[in-house]
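This section describes the prediction task in plain terms. A model, or a person checking by hand, is given the sequence of a single protein chain and must write out its three-dimensional structure as a string of tokens. No templates, partner chains or ligands are provided. The sample shown here is typical of the held-out split.
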Amino acid sequence: MTRPSESKRRHGWAAVGEWAVLAVVAVLIAFVVQRFLFQAFYIPSRSMEPTLMVGDRVLVNKLSYRIHDIRRGDLVVFEAPESQQTPTIEDFVKRVVALPGETVEFRDGAVYSDGQLLEEPYLPEEMVGRTSIERAPPGCDASAEEPFVSCTIPAGSVLVLGDNRAQSKDGRVFGPIPEDAIVGRVFLHVWPPTITWVYLGALLLAVVAAYLGLRTLVRRRRQRGSPRGGDDQDASNSSAMATMRSTRSQ
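The expected answer:
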């Protein structure tokens, strides 16, 4: 015969074990997600204003460029060149403006790719026509026959620039960056909240609520379907005791 207190104690320990397993699984999932899938980054400078402001937080997709090639206009996070790293900044976020094999030219404050004016609708109005550069950055060759700086992007590299051209240390300073240095593509503006962020938050809450509801439903069905062995045993024991008392009285 199982005492009620012992049964409650067993249920309590079972619940503790279940939550402990869930906690371990959650930690493992978080590690895998951050290591291989997504990672959050903080914006510490004004180099990407007004697209990204100081203090903003973004989420980077590390799988994007395993699925498709890097595209012009992508916002990417990459390991900063050693000459640009500081004790607090090891990664940069910039925009891809030129791809491998393309020849970039800087003319009269504008950017040209293979002779075509690069359309940059993301630039703030005050930055249009203000992409200044004094000399060819590392990894680029300036033509002596041309009055402007040109750069042919090596294979396996891309050229990145900040949207706030007047306050950005970018490819004009350190040259093209290797594709291998790219951590991933910025795909979500986490903070301050956006409509996409709100939708994802609502979706996550819905998934959690559905899980908890399903878990509760399964428990109730198990309780209804389990035989009441303890109650039957108690009733049998009571009947036997009553019979023994009746026999003794006779």
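For orientation: The chain has two domains: 1-38, 43-199.
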